[in-house]
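Example 3.2
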Amino acid sequence: MRSIKNCFLIISLLFFTDVFLSSCFFVSFEDLSVECNISETIEYFNEDYICVTFSISPDQKEFEDSVQLSQGSTAVICDFEWEDNTCKICPRENWTYGLAYSFIVNKELTMSDGRAYTVNLFRTFFYGLSEKYLKLMNCSITDNSVIDYRTNIIFTFNNPVDILSVKDKFTIVPSVSYKLEFKDDNKTVTVIPTENWKTNTYYSWELNEIKSREQYPLNKKYTGAFYSPSDIIQPELVSIHPVLVDSAAKTWRRDKSISDLYVHESLGFIFSEPVNFETVKNAITFTPSLSGTFIQSDTEGKEYIYCIQKNWDSETEYQIKISTSLQDNNKLPLYEEYQKFFKPKIEFTSISSISLNSTTITDYSEKENVCTLPQAQVGAEIAVTIEFSMNIDDQFKDTAYKMVSVGSYFPSSAASPSILHALWISDSELEILYKGFTKSTLNKNYYVLKITGGTKNILSTEGSFLKDDVCVYFIVQ
C-alpha cells in the first residue's frame, strides 16, 4: 500500500513540473555590461570608429536612434556597422581633425533577453593626435610681475601657429598698439609694443581659439597679467627763462628769469619731468593773450618754448598762468598751479655821438654849440654825423634817416638848410650833408638838430627805439 502512494507522488510531481516549464519563459540572471573604446578621461581620440560593445545584444534600431554625436553645437549624421554585439559608429562626412566632439547615449534599451536597461554614455574629446594640438609651452613674463616700459612678451608654442588666427584672437586689456613678430618657423610669437607701456597700469592678456598652421586648435585658453612701472611723482615747474628765437637758433638766457624778459623775446619753460605736449599747449595761458606757438625744445619733453609771433607790448602788464591740467606722460597733474604778473622790458637805442663837421657835440643840453666852418662858403655846408648805440638793419635805415631833421630855431628869418645827400658810413653811423645855413655875424642865428624818438620810430626787429627826442642847438660861424 505504501509503495502505491509513493508512485502516485512521483507521477504527480513530474506532471506539475512539465506543466510549469511549458507555461513560463527562461529567466537569465546575467548582468549587462557596456564597453566603449573612448574612456571617460580621454582628451584626444584618433581612431576611425567609436565602438560600443554590449554583453547582451541590444535592439539595434533602438540603440542607433539613441546615439547623439555632435561637433560643437552641430549634430553629426552617423553611419553604423554591427559585428555581433559591437556597434561601430563614424560620421558620414568623416572626422574633422582638430575639432571638439561630444558622444552621448542616454536611453532605456531593450535587450535580446527581453529585459530593459538604461544605457548612459557621455564622452567629450578632440579628434586627432594629442601632439598635433597647439599648446603654449612658455611665456617670457611671469604672471603678475612688474615689467619695464619697453619689455616684449614672448610666447613659445609646441607647433607652428596660424598667423592670422593669432592676429585675430590674441587680446590685451587695456588695449595698446603693438606689432607681432613670428620666428622659429612660427613657433615663437613676440608682442612688441609700439610705445612704452603706460605707467601705473595693470595689463591682462588672453590667448584663446587660435590655431596651429595645420588648423589644430589651442588645447585650452591661456591668460596672464602683469604690471607696468609705477610713478607717483608729479611734475613741477622748475623755471621760466627768456629765449631769443630767430631763423638761425633758439638761444636760452638761462641765467635770467621772466622778470628780465624783453619785448622781442619768447618764453622757455623747464619742468621736472617729461610732460605731455598737448596738455602744455592747453594749460599755459597769457592775459591779455599774445599770438604764438609752443614747440618742444629737447628730446626728453622737459623743455618747451612759447614762440611769440609779434613783440610783447612794453606798456602792458601780462599775467601768465599754468594750470594743473598740465600732465606728465603718465597723466599725473602738475604739482601746483603757477601764476605770475610780468611786464616786458624794452632795449632802448641811444645816440653815441653827434658831429657837426669836425665839431663833436658831447653835451646835448648846451644851448649854444658852435659849428665852425673851415673856410668861407657860399650857402654854408655842414656834414651831420650821427652814431647810434646799435647797428641798424637795412629795413630800418630809412626810418632812422627820417628821424633826423635840421631847421632854423631863432630868428625865424634865418635860412633853412636843405639836404645834399645822405650816406650810411657803417650800420651804426649815418652822415647827412646839409647846405644853406646863415652864418652868424653881429646877430646870432640859432639852428636845431633834432632826432625824433618814441615808439613810432622802431629801429630793430627787437622793437628798440629812441626813448626821448635828442636836440642839439648850434650856431654857424
